[in-house]
Write a structure and sequence with these properties.
Length: about 425
């Protein structure tokens, strides 16, 4: 037997309706905020992620699925959504359209890391990116969009954490202060963070190693080094969120795991899925488009993993309705009834009713068991008597209640 690759998962019919529901809610929320869908390829030239994600990140250094194609070109399976969207923005000239440009995607992503609950090597991401608007109101709107989406799927037990990591100007000063502190404590850092502290000291703040966490606990905070503009921007984000009744917590440890972030960064966190508690993360990335060869166009957005989101709905006991539930099972008894059931099922399907009927010549008892396994909401038994009278009983499976109706009135009934 050939087994599924480690870190991947089949989505079976008994679970797929949950995915469809979550994706539907994502699209509905995006529509409310006038955000349009974009679809980018599953793989890109490796340079897209080297320039976009950053060569000091764990994603680039450890986790990317990279290979040479038959033309000896370096290709990488998409590890995250933003860089691919920025590549499309530049290549397809989307920056010439009306701004701000609001885009969303639902896409598979790939990272070679240790599989754990809600974290797979192939996972699916819902993301939103907004380009061309520098104001704090866009940061706040993106946060509100993420919050509304999460609440729409029944997740309300979340904490919003906010931070600002400044712009190039104020972060340059902070980096020197942070480097000096880290050098004094470098013996306590993990080997990877000793390398990081010179190239990108901010990444040390994101390390999950316990010894590094202890060092970081007493490190200087970026919020104390923000320039006047970044401070004003961050204060306005908070003011706008408060005006909408949104509660939040300032968390100076948030830097996010990717190099392209500037100013506002945020996370929605839950303790319901253990230590890996971040459900959604994002922020502003004003220099990313330009660094990838495009115009000086600012951006802000977020991404969240659908697997982790579904795991959270299970932990919290959120009831996701099965909108694909079978509305009617027609149980034919005899050849004439089978032919009528076949044509009637097709007529009802064309009217928008989900219908199933027998394909094996089962007994009535066996058909009722089958209808129950299918989760049919209603059953109609169709035999010689029903054909002769032109009337049938519609049995509601939830409570056994039966309603008599004309056979040719079933379409209207449903």
């Amino acid at each position: 037997m050939i087994n599924i690759p480690k870190g991947t998962k089949d989505v079976l019919p008994k679970e797929s309706y949950k995915w469809q529901y979550i994706e539907k809610k994502a699209r509905e929320t995006a529509k409310k905020y006038s955000v349009k869908e974009i679809r980018t390829p599953t793989f890109e030239h490796t340079e897209v992620f080297l320039r976009g994600v950053g060569d000091t990140t764990d994603i680039v250094n450890k986790e990317m699925y990279t290979f040479l194609d038959k033309g000896e070109r370096s290709i990488t399976l998409k590890p995250e959504g933003t860089s691919a969207v920025v590549r499309a923005l530049i290549e397809d000239g989307l920056f010439n359209e009306a701004l701000p440009l609001k885009l969303y995607y639902i896409t598979p992503c790939f990272r070679y890391e240790r599989p754990q609950a809600g974290r797979l090597r192939e996972f699916h991401q819902f993301g939103v990116e907004v380009f061309g608007a520098a104001g704090a109101d866009v940061d706040a709107e993106v946060i509100l969009l993420a919050k509304e989406f999460l609440e729409s799927v029944g997740i309300t037990e979340l904490e919003l954490n906010l931070n600002s990591i400044g712009c190039k100007t104020c972060r340059a000063e902070y980096n020197e202060v942070l480097k000096a502190y880290l050098r004094e404590n470098q013996e306590k850092l993990c080997p990877l963070c000793r390398e990081r502290m010179e190239k990108n000291p901010l990444r040390v703040l994101d390390c999950k190693d316990e010894d590094c966490r202890l060092v970081v606990k007493n490190a200087p905070r970026i919020l104390d080094y923000l320039c006047a503009e970044c401070k004003e921007h961050f204060e306005k984000v908070q003011k706008l969120l408060r005006s909408c009744g949104v509660q939040y917590k300032i968390n100076p440890d948030i830097v996010r795991g990717l190099d392209y972030y500037t100013r506002t960064v945020f996370e929605f966190v839950s303790t319901a899925i253990g230590a890996q508690g971040t459900v959604c993360g994002g922020g502003r990335y004003d220099g990313l488009v330009e660094s990838m060869g495009g115009p000086a166009l600012c951006g802000v957005g977020f991404g969240l993993g659908l697997e982790r989101l579904l795991l959270l709905t299970e932990k919290l006991g959120v009831n996701i309705p099965d909108e694909n539930a079978l509305q009617l099972y027609i149980a034919p008894m005899g050849e004439s009834a089978y032919e009528k059931a076949f044509s009637l099922a097709e007529e009802l399907r064309k009217a928008g009713v989900s219908v199933e009927t027998d394909h094996f010549g089962r007994s009535l008892k066996a058909q009722m068991k089958y209808a129950d396994k299918l989760g049919a909401q209603n059953v109609v038994v169709l035999g010689e008597n029903e054909l002769a009278s032109g009337e049938v009983f519609v049995k509601r499976m939830s409570d056994g209640q039966q309603v008599k109706t004309a056979l040719n009135n079933l379409k209207e009934y449903f």
